[in-house]
Design goal:
Radius of gyration: 22 Å
Structural class: mainly alpha
Largest sheet: 2 strands, parallel
Strand content: under 5%
Number of helices: 19
Order of helices and strands: HHHHHHHHHHHHHHHHHEEHH
Strand order of the largest sheet: 1-2
Oligomer: single chain
Shape: globular
Length: about 500
């Protein structure tokens, strides 16, 4: 246990607790809890979005995947970045203009139906839990590496901290924790990237040349096909990554923390710049870990490769840089899980309880109380699932959340705004077909079933796609289309009304 690491970790926790303390003083209404009062500027929200998005999968998972499999790991960086074009051009403005607190609010603006709202809230909770499992797996491996705690204790520590931030601080605390984390993560990644480049004399061509002989894969390290040997699997992964962001609930709720659609657009532009620079640097982290740590040492510490970046920091900068990068990774995880807990809790308290159980008659204090209890429930559920996912790479786990988001949420979001014929039946069938098909395909796939030590259960998978996006995403769109066409419901007047509101905010 490094004293430096302990001090830096305690500093991170103290800083985030101070933010939560001051935020808690202002979190006295459901509007404050869900949106932080909607007062963030474009660049502030852009940094918060980047902080939400640059998760354990980005910092720990992608670096590890690149280090172990070469070019294939960089697919995650490319997919995560390109995804923001879909958000910017198709989703951000209509969502901000139509919604209030959650994604379900946007859909309910067109379809005032409790079943639609209930299924949308179910999707939000499911996606948030999938995403949160990935963060907790990364946190467990990180704290185990640093302090020697066992994996289960490590997951519990992070779970308790994230619950405290959300229950007391709400969206205001979550936003400022994410902004702080984004600045720390960019700084830490830049330092590590520059040290790696210095080792190659600041020559990218020299780096590529040396990596042809530095790993067990030799020249194949720089070519695609080391991890994803089947082209259709590569396509499936990238479909999920590019389309999934526009359906991620913890990203979508960030557009309600600004005052109008113009600010929402500017925040996406700011976030895209920050995220773009960050994902370019993940290449240096992965290549550096491959060259200066080695696949054998990376997998000896964590089979999923999630500790590649901290191990690289130790190899190049000693104990202090190792402790700093690990503390930044810890801040990364804390920031993301608070956003996830908040989005899931908001879906339960605002959509399930406030609109379905209480028929919109819940008082502000009543809904706020339920939101805080829901935060605890979501955190406990995520911790339980994370305890069984220790062996999985966090980038993979996040890609599954992206597949669910792209399959279950995106079709309905797009059809709600852009298709006049779309109706209530189509919305329900589309969301359920995307959600259930994706989960079922994951359940019978190679990450659940496989050889002992490489999968959760021992056996032969029924389908060999690690990410089912290429099947489940079309099924989500098809379900929405077929459900609409089989129903006679139609309300052209309502569509005209929400079309004007989605595009103008009026």
């Amino acid at each position: 246990m490094s004293p430096t690491a302990v001090i830096l970790f305690l500093c991170i926790i103290l800083l985030t607790m101070i933010i939560t303390y001051y935020a808690a003083k202002k979190t006295d209404s459901s509007n404050e809890f869900y949106t932080g009062g909607g007062g963030l500027t474009g660049w502030q929200n852009g940094l918060a979005i980047a902080g939400d998005y640059m998760s354990a999968a980005s910092f720990l998972g992608i670096a590890g995947t690149i280090a172990l499999t070469g070019f294939d790991g960089f697919f995650y960086s490319l997919g995560f970045l390109v995804a923001y074009l879909v958000v910017l051009y198709l989703v951000a403005e209509p969502l901000r203009n139509l919604g209030k607190y959650t994604m379900a609010d946007m859909i309910a603006a067109r379809f005032a139906n409790q079943n639609v709202r209930g299924v949308a809230a179910l999707n939000t909770i499911t996606i948030s839990i999938f995403y949160m499992i990935a963060q907790l797996v990364g946190a467990g491996a990180l704290i185990k590496l640093l302090f020697g705690f066992n994996y289960y204790t490590s997951v519990l520590i992070v779970g308790i901290l994230m619950t405290i931030y959300v229950v007391f601080g709400g969206m205001r605390a979550t936003s400022w924790v994410q902004i702080t984390k984004a600045v720390l993560l960019m700084g830490g990644t830049l330092i590590l990237s520059l040290i790696v480049l210095a080792k190659f004399n600041f020559s990218i061509s020299e780096m590529f040349t040396q990596l042809k002989t530095a790993t067990p894969l030799k020249e194949a390290f720089l070519n695609p096909g080391n991890k994803y040997k089947i082209p259709v699997e590569t396509l499936s992964l990238n479909l999920a990554l590019v389309l999934g962001t526009a359906g991620l609930p913890h990203i979508l709720t960030r557009f309600y923390t600004v005052k109008n659609a113009a600010t929402a657009r500017s925040s996406v532009v700011s976030a895209t710049w920050v995220i773009g620079i960050f994902y370019v640097m993940t290449l240096f982290l992965g290549f550096g870990a491959a060259a200066f740590v080695g696949a054998k040492d990376i997998t000896a510490i964590d089979k999923g490769g999630n500790m590649a970046a901290p191990l690289l920091a130790k190899a190049l900068g000693g104990d202090f840089l190792f402790a700093f990068i690990s503390a930044v990774a810890f801040a990364t995880i804390l920031a993301v899980v608070t956003g996830l807990v908040l989005s899931a809790a908001s879906a339960f308290s605002h959509d399930f309880y406030g609109q379905i159980v209480r028929k919109g008659k819940a008082t502000d204090k009543e809904e706020l109380k339920v939101a805080r209890f829901a935060s605890i429930g979501v955190a406990v559920l995520s911790i339980i699932f994370a305890l069984f996912a220790q062996k999985l790479n966090v980038a993979f786990l996040v890609s599954i959340a992206f597949a669910v988001a792209a399959s279950a949420n995106l079709p309905v979001i797009l059809f709600t705004v852009y298709w006049k014929r779309f109706n209530t039946t189509g919305a329900i069938v589309g969301m359920l077909s995307g959600l259930l098909s994706c989960i079922l395909l994951v359940a019978v796939g190679p990450n659940i079933w496989g050889e002992a030590g490489k999968a959760i259960l021992v056996g032969n998978p029924l389908i060999n796609l690690a990410n089912p996006g290429i099947i489940s995403i079309p099924l989500g769109f098809l379900g929405a289309f077929v459900g609409t066409m089989l129903s006679t419901q139609r309300d052209d007047v309502k569509y005209t009304e929400i079309n004007v509101k989605a595009n103008t905010g009026m």
